[in-house]
Amino acid sequence: MLSDAKKWLIGKPLKSNELGEQKLNKRKALAILSSDALSSVAYGPEQVFIVLAAAGAAAYWYSIPIGMGVLLLLTVLILSYRQILYAYPQGGGAYVVAKEQLGVYPGLIAGGSLLVDYILTVAVSVSAGTDAITSAIPILHEYNVPIAILFVMVITLLNLRGLTESASIMAYPAYLFVLALLILIIGGLWRIATGQEPPGAHGTFGVPVAGVGLFLLVKAFASGSSALTGVEAISNAIPNFKAPAAQNAVRTLLAMGILLAVLFAGILFLAYYYGISPRPEVTLVSDIAERTFGRGFVYYLIQGVTALILILAANTGYSAFPMLAVNLAKDKFVPRMFSARGDRLGYSNGIIALGLLSIVLIIAFQGRTERLIPLYAVGVFIPFALSQTGMTLKWLREKPKGWALKLGINAIGALASLTVVLIFFVTKPTQVWPVLIFLPALIVVFLLIRGHYRAVGDGLRISEEHEPSIEGNVLIVPVAGITKVVEGSLNYARSLAADHLIAVHVSFDREEEEAFRVKWAEWQPDVRLVTLHSPYRSIIQPLSKFIDVMQRKAGAANYRVTVIIPQFVPKKGWHNMLHNQSGFLLHTYLLYRRDIIVTTVPYHLPK
Amino acid sequence: MLSDAKKWLIGKPLKSNELGEQKLNKRKALAILSSDALSSVAYGPEQVFIVLAAAGAAAYWYSIPIGMGVLLLLTVLILSYRQILYAYPQGGGAYVVAKEQLGVYPGLIAGGSLLVDYILTVAVSVSAGTDAITSAIPILHEYNVPIAILFVMVITLLNLRGLTESASIMAYPAYLFVLALLILIIGGLWRIATGQEPPGAHGTFGVPVAGVGLFLLVKAFASGSSALTGVEAISNAIPNFKAPAAQNAVRTLLAMGILLAVLFAGILFLAYYYGISPRPEVTLVSDIAERTFGRGFVYYLIQGVTALILILAANTGYSAFPMLAVNLAKDKFVPRMFSARGDRLGYSNGIIALGLLSIVLIIAFQGRTERLIPLYAVGVFIPFALSQTGMTLKWLREKPKGWALKLGINAIGALASLTVVLIFFVTKPTQVWPVLIFLPALIVVFLLIRGHYRAVGDGLRISEEHEPSIEGNVLIVPVAGITKVVEGSLNYARSLAADHLIAVHVSFDREEEEAFRVKWAEWQPDVRLVTLHSPYRSIIQPLSKFIDVMQRKAGAANYRVTVIIPQFVPKKGWHNMLHNQSGFLLHTYLLYRRDIIVTTVPYHLPK
């Protein structure tokens, strides 16, 4: 029944050799891997204006040079990542690059911050998208958190069904979003070109404004670069591409870069030219759309599609997080289960973990996860900086043909990313300090996990010295009463023809004990019975004491002790509540605390 | 560590023969078993005035005859219960009496409603007491629910420590409450006797008031009789008394009856004479105390002690609920675990269940459980009526010396209780209807549980036809790799000298499968290896299919199949998260779904 429900929700299991069919073509990959990056134009440009607003509306013209700076940074990042895709066609992105080129610790810093970042991606995007919807339908506003959780659950399910199936669903909204924003930008430019917009609405370009210093400008730049989060997603996901994977990935990356640049530049320019001030309750895109088309069909289309892409941006996290977890699991830094493929060939444990953790974040922040945006941005630029630095070193070491240009691109990328990180720490220290706590903590956990796996691996490896051989067996059967369950276990124990067979009865009361001895002697005269008196009414304590004594004796003669537990199995699961679980407790206790072999002989009630 | 914490919280385990020391003497029993009944004078008299207030202040004089009616009912109940105590010295109260004299169904009605009632006792009393405290310290008001839950948890712990220990703690507040109320009553009478109270404050006695009909009067009477809830507690708890149990219990009952009557009558009379109208935000007792002593030390003493006794009234539920559950468990109507004594010889499962259920109620009603009072009262009078009816029949059947008087007392008790129940259903149907839902539902559950226990008992009883004997054994060892864990299991399997030993390896990929076969042939040439290919990456499915086939073959020859699971046991519990739990899953699956004997051979990492 449970497995039927599972099948209905995530589809029938797929065979391992059906893997190829689950791979992505470029059109789908662009939709699935870019929604995070593209959706950030919905809030990136606005961040620039919010910072500039501190110096008054006259300072808005600075948004144009700042926007150019962001576009420059985007170009550098795209070019740098293009080189990473070719150099690491097996995927892995920042973690793999930093680990191979810089060493384990930089790798773990990159991997750890990306891992946390993808969780933030999901929580932040879904919360923002939900906000957009509930702003449109105010009656839903108080249900923000449950709605966001519902979305996360739906996206998790889609991803458990498998990559391409979810990509088909994701493809339409992503392209619709690009289309809607292009219509908006062209419409706006048309209005400007035809003189429908008064040219005096915006401040004069190039006039220095009092109060605008370097601090404010770099802060605005860093804020604007939050529009670039998500650019790295493709580098983690190359193995999901159809062959030739690297080439297809690069083309997808370039297409994404161009789209991102066009949309970002268009929105920023219209906002500047229209002279729009950021308002807390209305988004910049909404203001632009309303000025351009009025509150008509096109306006609502743009708003709706924006909300949708924000929610779907979460999906980028779902394709990148599990792949990163696989890479970390291969190096034994996270539990091995993250590298197992599920029924539908996705890395289901990673997908489920991501869903659960982002739901926890959404609940903890009551859906107000927007304040995590700076944290999220700095968490992206740290691995950017590390992977570009790694690439720079790689070119320096290997010096392939044309290495000077490659080195230049990656070095500039590294420097630019590092600068953004430093700007964040200098201009927004109160918002990004948690990075300094969770990153080291996460790395300690990674190292502890690897330490454990290594110790276990060493301990279990077959060595020259064999395990001591077993000379004989002592079988102990705890008996609670004179029933068919016990009879079945005794029959089984006898069939093993062991050297010693002992039945043990724990009694709380002397009279019952005596009566049991008499009945036993009549029923099973050939099986030796030991009765244990338990003044504290515990079954496990006296039993384990007795077993300890037997094991000490047996061990001296290289005998092994086996406890045979007669287990009554009721017909229905809930019936277990009506029976004491001594058998189960004893089983766990003996295995984990006592190193005793435990055999369970089930007895099913005849139907 | 866990067991240390347990020891610290509830004390060291006691031996079964230390039971006598845990029994109650009369002084402690009065405190522990009467706090429920006594505390109800804190709200009982007020209920009468609230109903009469509907007809105006002139109608308050009716409270005197109504109060006399309640006292008469109290006398009848005390006398009736006195007879029950002598007739049923082994305890059990309404459930046992009704079951023996009237049959199983009336017994279950009585038992079921008492069971629910004790949960209500705890929830209602603790909520009311918490209200009293947070009314005094308004800053705590918004934490009502967590504070109430904390109190329930503390009382639960005290009861897990054991009866007499908690009785010692309970004794002081209970006696302090009686003392405080006696001081209040004497003080009030003194003021009246010395003429400090104007005699004209109250309405004229005996003047009929328009609008006061029979309906209003019986409603006021039923409301006032809510002061009698808790009277039955002693009858359930006789086995907790020191010998001679019945006699000690009867004396305690009489003492409680007298105290209850004095306090109830005193409060009611003062309220009438002072001419006090009930006010929603201030209790009647508070008003009387303020008028008598002013807002001084004595006033705050009375208020504080009242709050305390209300919280401790919950404790009555804790001594009665587990005893009732034991009686129901003996007859197999509730799970057997309710009849097992815990470390401190109390029936810990009953105590814990009561604590949890009342916390659930408190949370569900957000601490506003006062609206459950009518439900609670009707739930008490149903078993009153049933047990008195049972006693009436008993005297009719047995006709012992002086049976006519005994019959008379119990018949009047039965009739009076039944009348109260009927009045509740007629005058407050909207508040007591849930009884008609949960009582039948509870009885169905009782019967289902007994049905299950009976079926199991029949199924497990040793019969003439013996279980088929076992001719030989087939041992199957699932092997995941070539490790010391597997080596240990194979050594053990060989030592059992079974007829067949087969190692099974599940592989997800053909190359790995081939490599494994080669390595195996080298490592364990004498153990037959079967490899299973699992295209869907499940381990349990192909394994269970294979085991099914083996079992079919083996069963035909009266062979039994045993699956030997090599189980790696990590050093620390949390390490289990880092290893897959296939062994555990396989164990559960084979036992519960497949009727296969499962042996687990643990392998502990050398320290």
UniProtKB/TrEMBL annotation, chains A, B:
One cellular component (GO) term of this entry: membrane
Main location: membrane
Parts of the chain that traverse the membrane: 59-81, 102-123, 143-160, 172-193, 205-231, 252-276, 296-324, 345-367, 373-395, 407-426, 432-449
Membrane topology according to the record: Multi-pass membrane protein
Keywords, ordered alphabetically: Membrane, Transmembrane, Transmembrane helix
GO MF, one annotated term: transmembrane transporter activity
Location in the cell: Membrane
Family annotation (Pfam families): AA_permease_2 (PF13520)
Gene3D superfamilies: Amino acid/polyamine transporter I (1.20.1740.10)
PANTHER family: POTASSIUM TRANSPORTER KIMA
This protein's name: Amino acid permease
Species annotation: Paenibacillus oryzae
